[in-house]
Amino acid sequence: MGLEVLLLVCLASWGMAGAGGDGGMCSRIRLRVPPAREPTAGVGLSARAIICSGAGRVLRLHGGCAGGEPRHAWDQTPEEVQLYVFHDGIGEAWHEDDGTCALAISNSSVAFSFREQGGARWCLDLVLYAEIDPAASYYKVRKDRVSIKLRKGSKGAVWPTLRRVDVMTMDQFPTLPESFRTPKDAPPRAAVLPLPLAQNAPPDTGGQGGGPEWEKLGDSDKVSIMAAERKTLEKLLEAAKMGEVAELKAQVDAIAALNKLDTRQVLNGYLDGNKRGVAHMAASTGQREVLLWAHNAGADFAQCDVHGQSPFFIAAANGHVRSVEAIAALAPEDVDLHDLSSNATALHHAAGNGNAAMVELLLDFGADINANSHLGPAIQWASMSDHRGIVLLLVGRGADPNVCAQRTPGVDRNLPPPLVMSAAMMQTDLCQVYLDKGADVNATDEEGYTALHHACDTGNIPLISLLLEEAVDVLACTATGQTALALARVRWQGTGTLQRISDLLLPAMELAGGTNALLGAGEWVVSCVCVCGWVGEWVSECMLVCLCGV
Q: CB burial class (10 A; 0-12, 13-18, 19+) of residue 283?
């Protein structure tokens, strides 16, 4: 009853938040999607939604919530800024003469408005980052979008944002097209001291923007410096990720010399949009030699990224055993560090990834085998990914099968207990393991479903037999008042499966006092379920159960 959807949502959040991967070189979304037809603008979309431009570049979508700005995205070349406004059917409805649509372009702003047939109005008023040449700018109306080409006032200028901002940060700085990039072997460019970004500035500079020297600069000089820093940062972190120790040392030495920093400040201060530095990048790909050098050079291995993950956590979640061993030997870590995305530890991720060697190593380091998360304990991460061997390993080392998932903020329903989830996923062998280790056979999810309810709903005859051997409550009802047999009747009516389920459950129900009589085939059976309320008070609820074919 909706469990499949819940699982998909939880697994999706796990995949997005996860520990792994490169960490990204900037704040832009790195995923690619086919350039398919866009959904209607009336559907609320977050700013994380993305599209692909014709050149295959990834663009980030903004707006789309009813009553606000229309969905739009932007890109740039050295000569122009390309603004796209999306709405299904806008091409057919475009009539400027009757006020349905309006577009005004000045040297510093763009004003767009569109009124739907139903009366809803969409408005996009932009004060642009820099001046443009309105006479050389133009637009084209297509079936589902308006493409607006804005000619830059200064050719070759980099726009870090579409809108004018008072304070620029590296998080706002975009991934630049290839036409803006310099060759990989180009030397790093010196930045005006102090460094412009708070997160990259030496600790003694203080203050957003890096000090008065930075504030004295014009916008074009600031953009040039930020572009140079972006390229230098990408080269530095790429060398760490690829394990190029000699190149990494050269980059660190050059940055330190040009900006009058020491090595420690470079290693701990130069971070990407996810606040990952040299140690994080090396850990993500298991570059043990880089990690050893970085530690000796002063890298802070307790520093966490925006997801709350340290280099140790990242290396463990990505399955790099030798790197985890090296970090543990160099810098004692909190093996039970919980991240910020799903409140999970490295053990949860290792179990979900099916990495037995890493699970064993983390347990040897003292990881809490029953540590909880928004997706449950480690055994639940393993069972959700169908890693039966990891479940057996964890249970064999003392995992408690009765630990329930923590409530996830913003989610109406939580994951059910391990036994109930495995029953819903038809993992009969894991249900046997959980029961052997003391799992509560009558545990329920938030809708009152027990493992027996899921077994009957899926027609899992072996699991029904197993649960009956464990004295499961055959009269237990869901939150809507359905017994397991009632679910089976709805799901399997007119099939042999219902006959087999009835043959198993009816004797147990009669023994439990749940049926008044067993009538002939095709007859109605009246079963009275007594529910205990407050002490001394009994409420009897009578329900009709049609047992077709019994």
A: buried
CA distance 150 to 137: 5
- pTM for the model stands at 0.59
Judged on CB neighbours under 10 Å (0-12, 13-18, 19+), 131 is middle
| Dihedral over Cα of 491, 492, 497, 501: its sign | positive
Query: What is the tens place of the pLDDT at every residue in 144-193?
Result: 888 999 999 888 777 777 887 665 444 444 444 444 444 444 444 433 33
Radius of gyration of the chain (CA): 30
Are 525 and 507 a contacting pair, CB within 8 Å? no
Give yes or no for residue 408 having a pLDDT over 60.
Answer: yes
Handedness of CA 232, 233, 238, 240 (dihedral sign): positive
Phi and psi, residue 435, nearest 5°:
-65, -40
pLDDT digit string, tens, across residues 83-112: 988 887 787 777 766 677 888 999 999 998
Residue 475's contacts (CB-CB under 8 Å, 6 or more residues apart) are 483, 509, 512, 514, 529
Q: How far apart are CA 240 and CA 282, in angstroms?
A: 5
CB 283 within 8 A of CB 323: yes
Q: Is the peptide bond before 417 cis (omega within 30 degrees of 0)?
A: no
Cα(314)–Cα(275) distance, integer angstroms: 13
> What is the rounded distance in angstroms from the CA atom of residue 319 to the CA atom of residue 347?
11
The structural domains of the chain, ordered by start, are 27-166 (2.60.40.790), 441-546 (1.25.40.20)
What is the DSSP code (8-state) at residue 39? P
CB 136 within 8 A of CB 116: no
Q: What is the dihedral of CA 347, 349, 352, 354, to 10 degrees?
A: -70
